């Protein structure tokens, strides 16, 4: 549960592994169990719209398309899908900011290992966001612990819970 007062809270939309969702304020988005996966949070404060994706892999198999409902699974499809959905609610690309959470090295692979999915997910996401000129305003990535994320679309605040018991605002 998020820290703070006991006033009524907006409804929570759960974003599962490989899923993505966009909501307008008041709303909250939550994902759990981030290991090597990366949670991308996009927010436009002026339009009061936000999106979240629980991204599993940098790219689709052989660079192909995805089935409906699988847009959040890959960096290559999650970012444009979230931006397009947010635009439908009035968001403007130049106002959107990003926060990144996850991308852990859960199996402590050597830095050169191809199977270091967490690092590859973060690198791909940073590259796509830079190309689209979307600022990453905060991140909590890497390391060796899992994470869960709560995102309040009204305020843009992101609460992180780590598998080692640490909790903090991002």
In a few lines, what is going on in this structure?
The chain has 170 residues and is of the alpha+beta class.
Major sheet: arrangement of strands = 1-3-8-9-10
Note the run of SSEs as H and E.
EEEEEHEHEEEE
CATH class: Alpha Beta
Binned, the helix content reads 10-25%
- Percentage beta strand: 25-35%
- Total domain count: 1
User: Could you give the distance between the termini?
Assistant: 15 Å
CATH architecture: 2-Layer Sandwich
Q: Could you tell me the radius of gyration in angstroms?
A: 15 Å
Number of helices: 2
Structure classification = alpha+beta
Number-wise, the strands total 10
The largest sheet is: 5 strands, mixed
The quaternary state of the protein chains shown equals single chain
According to CATH, what is the topology? 60s Ribosomal Protein L30, Chain: A
In terms of per-residue confidence, which ranges show pLDDT below 50 for 5 or more consecutive residues? none
The shape is: globular
Question: What number is the mean pLDDT?
Answer: 91
Detailed description of the structure:
There is one protein chain. The protein has 170 residues and is an alpha+beta fold. It has one domain: 60s Ribosomal Protein L30, Chain: A, CATH 3.30.1330.200. 17% of the residues lie in helices and 33% in strands. The chain is built from 2 helices and 10 strands; from the N terminus they run βββββαβαββββ. The protein has a 5-stranded mixed β-sheet with strand order 1-3-8-9-10, with no helix packed on it. It is globular and about 40 Å long. The model has no long low-confidence stretch (mean pLDDT 91).
